[in-house]
Amino acid sequence: MSFIEDVESEFIIRTGSYNYQNTIPKSCVHRAAVGEVFLTDIRKIHDNKYITAGYLPKSHIYFNDLPFRKSSERVYDAILLLEICRQTSIYVTHNFFAVPYSAKFVFDDADFTLFESEIPYKTECSNVIVEVDIIERKFRKSELTGLIFRMDIYVDGLCCAQKIMNISWMDDKKWHRLRSQRPLDNHDYSTVVPAEMLEVGRQLPLNVVIGNADIHDSGITTTVIVDQTHPSIFDHPLDHVPGMLLMEAYRQTALLAMRSRLGTRCYDLVISRYKVNFTRFCEFNSPAYCHALLGEIYLTEDKKSTVIPMTISQDEKTVSMAELTITFK
Fold first, then answer.
1. Which residues form the A-factor biosynthesis hotdog domain (predicted)?
2. Considering only CA atoms, which of 290, 288, 289, 294 is closest in space to residue 216?
3. How far apart are CA 289 and CA 185, in angstroms?
């Protein structure tokens, strides 16, 4: 990367030269509803750097459903920024890497760090800039099959988060061969008792995605509730449990674990880092369980945050592994 490119990138991030008047086409980010799209613009700086622009919604039924003591204390959560990063990765890939819209994406792993413990609501809608660097291209023989991104997320000009993101894709024929033998049954969750909303950082019952919490000596285990009628998580039909839902299950189980062990309320905590790896598909036919391994927790080097090792399992096989870093406000 040249000095000129660095200067140009910094200049573009700091100027208000982006479109915020309307969102991009919903198909560009694999969404069915316009209200689920948060990106508004995109620019190419050079072959390894791109910029996307967007906004933070203030009334979304899922992403804005966070408890607050009073309206002046409302803040945004990392989960919304994670979704903006997901949309960015797909939009960049379709626009600049000739990946067809029929391709299927797999999110392999991610490391998301929140630099600001609180991103407050403002009277006006907050704008977002994502500075995207391609740090690795993945090939199978000579075919490009994936990218690893570094994304720096700016909210109203302040760099508040960074995400390292590893994605892959395949054409729909390969996907069909891979997924054609999947189980087609749906597990019945009617007997699962959802967690209390405020204990898992939610205000609306439909956004509680864990239940039947089992607190034991080594930690806490919850059942992941998969509601395929959820208007945001299942904005369109899927053939597996999406990573978006598993990330939320991690979030809610971690908050519940902190509540059960220390009595802390969600208002007083921020999940400042999500380090997640997905190892296999999570299917609809049997329950998945989220485990917070409290016997293995440790402190960060500065002693200011707690790291909780976690896993999600299904049919006694590991679907995903994670470490969530919890910081007191």
1. 29-167, 200-327
2. 294
3. 18
What is the model's pTM?
Answer: 0.94
Cβ atoms < 10 Å from Cβ of 145: 18
- For the chain, report the end-to-end CA distance as a whole number of angstroms: 38
15-19, 182-186, 252-256: range with lowest mean pLDDT: 15-19
Residues 6+ apart with CB under 8 A from 251: 79, 200, 201, 271, 274, 324
Q: What is the DSSP letter of 239?
A: S
Check: CB of residue 274 under 8 Å from CB of residue 327: no
| pLDDT tens digits along 192-248 | 999 999 999 999 999 999 999 999 888 999 999 999 999 999 999 999 999 999 999
How far apart (Å, rounded) are the C-alpha atoms in residues 235 and 189?
A: 20
In this structure, which amino acid lies at residue 10? E
Helix (H) or strand (E) run with residue 161 in it: strand 158-170
Give start-end residues of each CATH 3.10.129.10 domain in the chain: 3-173, 182-328
Q: Which two tokens stand for residue 221?
A: 């285990």
Rounded to 5 degrees, φ, ψ at 64 are -100, 5
Task: Report CA-CA distances (Å) from 145 to 44, 79, 93, 123, 176.
Answer: 20, 26, 11, 42, 16
Phi, psi dihedrals of residue 216, rounded to the nearest 5°:
-135, 180
CATH of domain 182-328: 3.10.129.10
CA-closest candidate to residue 146, choices 166, 160, 127: 166
Residue type, 107: F
Do residues 71 and 120 lie in contact, with contact meaning Cβ atoms separated by under 8 Å? no
Q: CB-side exposure of 195: number of CA atoms within 13 Å?
A: 31
